Structures are given as C-alpha cells and as structure tokens.
Amino acid sequence: MKIPDDVVKKIATAKSIVFFTGAGVSAESGIPIFRGKDGIWNKLKPEELANFNAFLRNPEMVWEWYNHRKQIIHQSMPNQAHLSISEFQKYFPDVSVVTQNIDNLHRRAGSKTIYELHGNIERNYCINCGTFYNEELPFEGRVPKCKCGGLIRPDIVWFGEMLPEKEFSSAEKAISCCDIFFIIGTSAVVYPAASLIYAAKENDAFIIEINTEETEASKIANQSFRGKAGDILPEILNIVKEEISK
Ligand code: OAD
Ligand code: ZN
Known about the structure:
With about 250 residues, this protein is of the alpha/beta class. It has helices at about 5-10, 25, 40-45, 45-50, 50-55, 60-75, 80-90, 105-110, 165-175, 195-200, 230-245; strands at about 15-20, 95-100, 115, 120-125, 130-135, 150-155, 180-185, 205-210, 225. The chain is elongated, with a radius of gyration of 19 Å.
C-alpha cells in the first residue's frame, strides 16, 4: 500500500488526532458488523432488539441477545487496529477515540481518552430509578431487577434514543480542534454519530478514511485507504514513526 508522502508528513506534524470508529474496527476481533451481507441487521430486526418498546414487550429476548453478544465480546481480544490506535498516544500529545462501538476493546487496548457515543455493554441501569449496575449481572432466563423493583437494561443507546450528552459534547470539543480525523470501519450512516464527520470537515481537519469498502464518508475524505483496519493502521503508524524519528 502506498501512503502518499504529504499524508505521512501531515500526520507526523499533527498535535491533535481523533479516531472515529465503528464496527469494522472490531471485525478482525471476531465481532460481527451490522450492515452488509453478513451484517447483524441483515439477519435480525433492530426494531425487535435495539428498541425500548421491544424491551418492554419482551425483555427476556433482548437480554438473551445482549448476553450472547457479551459472550462473544468477552472471548475476543483487541486487534492490531485497536492496538495501533492506542500506540499513537506515545507519539502525539492529544489523541482521542470517538467510538460507536459498545465492546470496550479500545479501552482494553490501552486507549485513554474514549468517548462512547452508543454506550457500553459492560454497564446496565434501572429503567425506573436510573441506578447503574456495573458488575456482571446473572441472567438465567429472568431479567435482573433493581432494588426498587424496576427492570434493568443494558446501557446501550437504542434506536430513537438520545446519545449520552456529555460524551457527545466532549467528542464535539475534541473534533473542533483536531488536525487529523481518522474515520475507521464505519458505514457512516447512523445519526447523530455520523454528523461528527461533517463537523470535522467544517473544522478543516485532514480526513483519512480506512474501510474495506467505499462509504458515505469516502466522499468527503481527503484520503481513503481500502482494506482492513488491522493491516492498514500498523503500516501508517510505522511510516509515521519513521518520519518522526528523522
Ligand atoms: P456498520 O456495520 O454499519 O459498518 C461497518 C463498516 O465497517 C462497513 O463500512 C464495512 O465496510 C467496514 N469494515 C468491515 N470490516 C472491516 C475491517 N476489517 N477494516 C475496516 N473496515 C471494515 O457499523 P457502524 O458504522 O459501526 O448502533 O454502525 C453504526 C451503528 O449502527 C452501530 O453503532 C450500531 C448500529 O445499529 C447502535 O447499536 C446504537
Ligand atoms: Zn431502580
């Protein structure tokens, strides 16, 4: 893969870098993506699983599904993409990760500043009183209940719900002053998360996309790389390290 010299120089001289990530960054860890022919939403209906009314109708089914996803996530490990993103922190003073993923893999890879736009599968909260439950809750066919008697749900943003305000505004702030904005492994079609891409463009960040396919974001990217994030990111990191040490 050829990484143009001017792109290498731009990255090497950056002060602030934001990585905006989606399901594709975890694909090589064995976690299925949502869209496309093998995507989750091609087999299952989001309105039956990722939706508050669906949860009220059938909380057991929703819990069962998230428990299944949690098991896959627990068996998986951060891949070269997560690890490279984390290694960028060694060479740049200001690196943040803005992720749509709920799988905790950026944290497990060592990234320090992470804004989780869609929640985190490790956390749960009571739909009645809002108490958080961060410990592992046993699920044996019965939905865990809060001390107050309310049903406990995963802390994941479902369709039609607001994004966590603080995470979103912190992400906006990081994006407002970044020099380089990487868009990695996202189809860039889910809003309001995808709006951040346009915010980065408006703020004149240099936009680099990494995806196995062309996406909505390709149209505005200054540079697109086609291929797996786990192959391309380590290559970029290596060549940037060489440039920095010159
Ligand atoms: P999608 O499934 O929509 O898109 C995943 C993207 O990753 C696609 O563009 C693939 O081409 C790309 N891809 C797959 N493997 C890759 C690899 N190894 N390296 C690089 N790219 C790869 O996932 P998201 O864009 O993350 O929301 O979806 C956004 C939101 O929709 C999710 O956060 C989720 C879902 O409904 C909630 O759960 C709230
Ligand atoms: Zn409660």
